[in-house]
């Protein structure tokens, strides 16, 4: 009797499943080795068990080199497939893009007030609304820029005003300092001139009256006389002139 065909489905019995996995894994590794020897092929086999255990087989070349070769081949195939797909997509997208460009160009002409004859009343109303909305946005932006410029100019004005006040304050302080310095120098100059000024001359001595002692022994005062009186006084005998320093003691 021939061997019946085994139905491929998951083995529910855990022990039977483990035994089947071990037998089939050994046979798979054997078949991989046979095809690599018989056909001189590079074979890489990777198997993970249900518990995550790794079983692998590779030909004389290392597993890493075979995997790198696989990556290069698969990347090239994917790139070629993507290129062909993109070319197909471009051929489909090109008419759509051309139609879109034509619509945009016509809209620009309409916004500029050109090519309005084919448009219906509803389309013209929609175009007018678009233009009004655009004008509102333009005016709003213009007013915003005006307000920003005014704010910046006001800030500059305040800064210049503050700077002007600071400069005026510094000028006043400098003028005050220079005035004080000039007064101080003038006072020092006056003191120096006073210290080097020669002393004033002494007042002239007033001539004191002279006393004359006559023959009778009485003292006679002689003040300023004219020439005749002085001549008469010199002729009188027995007269003695007392110096001024003695006259002070006599008066006392």
UniProtKB/TrEMBL annotation:
Keyword Transcription regulation applies: yes
MF-aspect GO terms: DNA-binding transcription factor activity; protein dimerization activity; RNA polymerase II transcription regulatory region sequence-specific DNA binding
Residue ranges occupied by any MADS-box domain in the UniProt entry: 1-61
Main location: nucleus
Keyword Iron-sulfur: no
Gene Ontology, cellular component aspect: nucleus
Range of residues in the leader sequence: none
One of the protein's GO biological processes: positive regulation of transcription by RNA polymerase II
PROSITE patterns per the UniProt record, alphabetical: K_BOX (PS51297), MADS_BOX_1 (PS00350), MADS_BOX_2 (PS50066)
PANTHER family linked: SERUM RESPONSE FACTOR HOMOLOG
Protein name stated in the entry: HbMADS-box protein
Organism: Hevea brasiliensis (Para rubber tree)
Gene it is expressed from: AGL8
